[in-house]
Design goal:
504 residues, mainly beta, 2 domains
């Protein structure tokens, strides 16, 4: 324990602290600074989205062991063991991880635990838990996890927290508890299944979270299943911007075959609870299953969002369309002939606005069935605008890949709610259904609530509104192109008023 209110600080500069297998390293003191002179070097040719560090001049690592990092700013007894850290009544201090690689990897149990008041992870720093291939008996039931408990977390400049499974065993969870958390500039929190083992979950409990040009993702590109993303925010979740390669910032669950053939597991769910949700400027909440040519994937995860106040979706990806679409918003998609079924999107909120090209979309482009959209909004739904006033920047890598693989490049996104099936095969998957309950629904000029299919059966649209359905040149439609299947049904229940101002 500490007998003073000002414990001595700990600083490492370009240090390499590497422990043998199964050992525990604990750095516990006052302010804690782990500093490197250059950022860890990442292998840019690593397969399957892996993050492989080829060199780092500031490194703390162990194999199948435990790393405990804690900063305290008062007297108190600190408990450090294999169950993690417990600061007890001690006040937390500041931890700076700058250009540093912190790693636990191996075939057996392990953990990285970081506790304090303020945590800054910056300038390409890597916090990495990796389950390695090897003895199958050792792999089963053994996990390597990441546990962070702080008041504020600042995460920026290409820094990464990751947990990967490269084996038959599962990777561990990433668990973060923070008051305010913000992530910027190509920073990422990821959990990957690269082999037959499942990836773990990402679990965040915060007051507020800001993801700016950064993201949180669970990924499977082998037979292992992807983990879930759980976020509980007492106040606001805000997602804005894109990565420098054009991929959407935000929350992503993906089951993807990276080559021309292969098989992937089930995508993870995205589950959010908050007072307010804002998604803008290319930000995305996306669940997808993606294959090319002879590949085959299983079903995508579901998106389930519960917000006590409002959901605001606005704007587009400034670099253009990629496999997540063009508009900011929420998507669940099945992309490729042999992709699995798309997930379902379920939203509960007091208000919902979709503006300036943002959208909610469930879609399929192959044999997989489209997911459903279920909206339960206590107050109004307002849908307005498109992206015609936004000029697109030069496409980035994600846009160029999408154009090459799928021969699509939409320039305009019209705000709306869509359930689509655009397969160019005879047995294309059916479009999903749209179910909406709201006090009031307003559709602006050319904005849409629609199901659209090609060579497949159209989805149904069911709308229940207790007061007003206002179509100001807006459209509620179902349509079918090609094949012998029928469009879906449109049912509108119990509105007090329906106002059609050139709407349909």
């Amino acid at each position: 324990g500490f007998l003073t209110d000002s414990p001595a600080s700990i600083t490492t500069q370009d240090s390499n602290l590497s422990l043998s297998k199964g050992k525990t390293l604990s750095l516990i003191g006052g302010d804690l600074d782990l500093i490197g002179s250059t950022s860890p070097v990442i292998d840019k040719n690593a397969p399957n989205f892996q993050i492989i560090i080829t060199s780092a001049n500031s490194e703390i690592s162990t194999s199948s062991g435990y790393i405990n990092l804690a900063s305290v700013a008062s007297k108190g007894e600190i408990v450090s063991n294999k169950s993690g850290l417990n600061l007890g009544d001690a006040k937390g201090g500041q931890i700076m991880i700058n250009k540093t690689f912190v790693s636990v990897n191996g075939q057996e149990n392990g953990r990285i635990s970081i506790h304090g008041k303020n945590l800054i992870i910056t300038n390409g720093s890597q916090i990495q838990a990796k389950k390695l291939p090897g003895n199958n008996q050792l792999n089963n039931g053994q996990e390597i996890s990441v546990d962070i408990n702080v008041d504020t977390l600042l995460f920026n400049n290409r820094s990464v927290i990751s947990s990967d499974s490269l084996s038959t065993g599962n990777s561990g969870d990433i668990v973060i508890k923070a008051g305010n958390m913000s992530s910027h500039n190509d920073s990422d929190i990821t959990n990957r299944a690269v082999s037959s083992g499942d990836s773990g979950n990402i679990i965040l409990t915060v007051d507020n979270i800001l993801l700016e040009d950064s993201g949180i993702a669970t990924i499977t590109n082998n037979s292992g299943n992807s983990g879930n993303i759980y976020i509980r925010a007492n106040e606001t979740i805000k997602i804005t911007g894109t990565f420098s390669d054009g991929w959407n910032g935000g929350l992503v669950s993906v089951s993807a075959v990276t080559g021309e053939n292969g098989f992937t597991g089930i995508g993870g769910d995205i589950i959010l609870e908050a007072k307010k949700l804002i998604v803008t400027n290319g930000g995305k909440i996306s669940s997808s299953t993606v294959v090319r040519k002879e590949g085959q994937s299983q079903q995508a995860g579901n998106v389930d969002i519960h917000v006590s106040d409002s959901i605001e979706l606005s704007g587009i990806n400034p670099y253009g369309e990629n496999s997540n679409g063009l508009g900011s918003g929420i998507t669940a998609s099945s992309i490729g002939i042999n992709a699995g079924n798309a997930g379902t999107i379920s939203l509960t909120a007091n208000e919902l606005s979709i503006t300036d090209g943002a959208d909610i979309i469930v879609s399929t482009s192959g044999k997989g069935k489209g997911g459903h959209i279920n909206l339960n909004i206590n107050g109004p739904i307002f849908i307005s605008g498109d992206s015609s006033e936004f000029g697109l920047k030069e496409p980035k890598i994600s846009q160029l890949i999408f154009q090459k693989n799928f021969n699509q490049d939409n320039k305009i996104s019209i705000s709306g709610i869509y359930a689509n099936s655009f397969g160019d095969i005879n047995d294309a998957g059916d479009a999903g259904n749209i179910s909406i309950k709201a006090n009031q629904i307003t559709l602006g000029n050319n904005n849409k609530i629609t199901t659209e299919t090609e060579n497949a059966t159209g989805g149904n649209i069911n709308i229940g509104t207790s007061t007003l359905l206002y179509l100001n040149s807006g459209q509620i439609t179902t349509s079918v192109k090609g094949g012998s299947s029928n469009g879906g049904n449109i049912t509108i229940e119990n509105p007090t008023f329906i106002v059609l101002n050139q709407g349909q």
